[in-house]
Every structure is written in C-alpha cells, then in structure tokens.
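Quick question: what would this complex look like in 3D?
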Amino acid sequence: MSSESVPKYSIQLSFEDIRLPPVKDILVLGKKCPQGRIGVFRSFQFLVPNEFDSFEIDNEEAVEAVFINKRVLKKISPEKIIAILKENVFPYVSENEVLKVDFKLRVYYESIEGEL
Amino acid sequence: MEIDKYIKNNFPKVNIYDGVKTVEGKLLDYGYLVVFDEDNKFYGILSPVDLVRRPHLIVADCVTDKEVISYDDCSFDIMRKFSYCNSSALPVFNNKEFIGIIERSDVLSGLESKVDELHKKSLISDEAKNNFLRNISHEVRTPLNGILGFLEMIQNLKATKEEKDTKRFIQIMRSSADRFLLVMNDLIELSLIDAGEKPNLTIDKILVKQIFDEVIMMFNSKSDIANNKVDINYDISDKVRYIYTDAKRLKHLLYHLIENAVKFSASKYISIFYQTATDTDKVSFIIRNNTNDNFDFEMLHPFQKQDLNNDEFNPGLGIGLPVVKKLTTILEGNLNIKHLDMEMEVTVTIPVRHSQF
C-alpha cells in the first residue's frame, strides 16, 4: 500500500438558461461606472438590435443615463418612467454602479362599458 | 485669415471605440487627443479632465462637449473659447466642415509675440521721438538764437528817420522769433523730462517782485495781448520777499499761467498775485480769470486742448498747462486748479527754499 496522498476533486454543477443582455426592462448607469452610455448602447445594438432606447439624465448627481426597453415604452412615455425612477430608484444609485431595474407594468381598465 | 497660422492638421488621433486604458499614455504625452468615428469623421476632443469627469472604459463615453472655433474667429474669440473649457486644443470648423485643430499654447505664444512686437515698436517710436526732439535742440535752437542775436544788434544800431519803419518790422520779427523759441523750448523740455532726464537747475536767490515785473513786461510787449487790451492786474503784498529757486523755470511757469489765463478769459481782466505762508515756508502764485467754461483736467496732459464754444479755433499746441505741471514738479511744488462760479483760479505753491539750494 502506498502512503502517498492522491488529490481528489469535487464539482458542483448546474445549468441555467440566461438571455443576453441580462436586462429585460430598464438599466440605470451611474456617472462613474466603467461602462458609459455609448459603449452600453453599442453592445445592446449588437446583442438585441433596436430593442432599447437610451436617455441621458441631466441634473442628477449620480446617474448618467437609463436604457429602457422599447416594449415598455410602447405602453408608457419615457418622461413618466424617468419621473418614477427619479423618485424611487435614483436616490439609491451610487455613481460607480450599474443597476438593473425590473419594471413589471400591468395596464388595466376599471371597467369597460358599452351598449348591448 | 488671422487664424490660419494657428490651425494644425497634424495631431494625435484616436478612434471613438478605443479603450481608454490603451490611449491614456498618449493623452498624457500630448495633453489632448482628437477623436474620430468609424467613418473617419471628427467626433470630439478628449482631454485629461474628461477622464476624471467621465471615467468610462471607451473613449466615446469619456469625451465631453467643448467649444468649437469658427474659421472667421479672431484671436480674442479663440482665447475666450479656451477660457470656457479645460482643453488644450479645440476643433476648427469652416461651414460645418472640420478643418483642423488649434492648440491653446500656439495662440498664447502668438499673442505674446504680438504684444512683444508692439511693445518694441512703441519703444522704438518713443526713442525716435526723443532723439528727434533732442536734435531739434541743436538744429533749430542754435540758428534761431543766431537770428535773435543779430536782430538785437540791428535794433540797437542808431536809426535814421527812414529806418524807423524798418525798425518796427524788426521788432515784430523779433517778437515772433522769441515766441517760436519759447514753443521749441517747451517741447524740448517736455520731451526731456518724459525721457527721464533730470533737468539741470540753477538755484539762485530771487526777488519775487523782479520776476513778476519781467514776466508782465513780456506780456505788455506782446502785440496780440496789447490788441486784446487785457489788463493784467497784479498785487505785490510783499515787495522784499526773496525765494531760492530756479529763476528761469519760475519765469517760464508764470509766463504760461498768465498766457493761459489771457487765452481763456471771458473778460478783459485777469488778476495775478502771490502770498507767502511763513509757517509752511511756502510761496503761492495765484492767477484768476473769468471763464464760461468748466476746466477739463485732460488739459494737464500734453497736446490736449480745451474745446472752445461755437467751434472757435483754439490756438496753441496744448503744451502750456502740461509745461506748468512739469515745472511745478521740478520746483518741488504743487498745482491746484479751482473753478468757482464763472471764475477759474490756478494756484502754484512752491517752497521758499528749493532742496538743491
């Protein structure tokens, strides 16, 4: 019997399906994050052409730009989305951060009436 | 165009999608990089400050908007645009077409050379002017003194009756030559003082009354003043007052004060007197005349002349009061001009004893 120690290994393995880019709805770019608006927009154009619009954000301390999926923009105007983000998201963004925002939008009517 | 000499077509270039890490060294070497897009069109200028403001990974994300120089901008416009942004170079456009860049240092050194050139020119012209005036001293004054000397000799010759008319003409010639010599002396004196030369003073013990008498006599013999019938009234309160100063300069000063008062007097009357203040050891010469005009203090600068009413011609070179001012300084005194209700009063106060005595 040999007394030599033989290295062994252990692997934990799993699979998951992802989609590129890993952002579905909205992406918020901090002012000093490594990726800037043009670079991110260009990579989006390669990965999911014509799916995102970018908006430069003025007068915000930490945020440089936001990317919004055109699917969302079809339902609600960018001004309204940016106003919502300003109130609910931007206060929590630090300037060297890139933030993914899930924006689940449900459009509903209280009641739909008509003549029979 | 004025800016042609500053426009560069050879400059450090980078591509819009270059990584910042790969161009950092070049940016530090040149101080700026000109960014072109994929179609080789001008995109912007990348400056080191951009990397601090926008620390992203690709050049395109770091470039900030900057001023743009138009082809018809002058140096002043260019410097103003540089002052608005932290960039050592700016793009130049002619009809929306990029034609090159201008570096701030080139404009600054161009302006520096221009200032230097203008400064040298001003020094050369100043020196030329002073040399010219110095030469006048020799070339004009010397022959003029010769003419005056011979006129005096002719005047002193015994005259027959027929020669009396000639003598009158000689008197007029002499008066004109005297006047001409005075103007030349003033110009030369002003130029020499301006050139920084110290005047040679001859300080003597002077009886003030005697100086007054001599100056008034000069005016009484002047035909233009005699024709205007201006009465120069002077009051001698202290007939035995002696002062220690340069007699020639004081006489010259008083002559100009009186001449100025006569020229701008609204009436046919001027008064001149002096008073001494024993406690301060100073003597003041005061000249008053009536005037309708306010005194313009610009008149104390050489060649500036008082505007007269009704577009009248204002005779003289505009050097009388500047000469008074300079002579007052030479005699260690001060000049005070007051305008009181239709009357102008000029006071020159000098020490009883000049410091060089």
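Answer marked as accepted. The beta strands of chain A are 26-30, 52-56, 63-69, 98-101.
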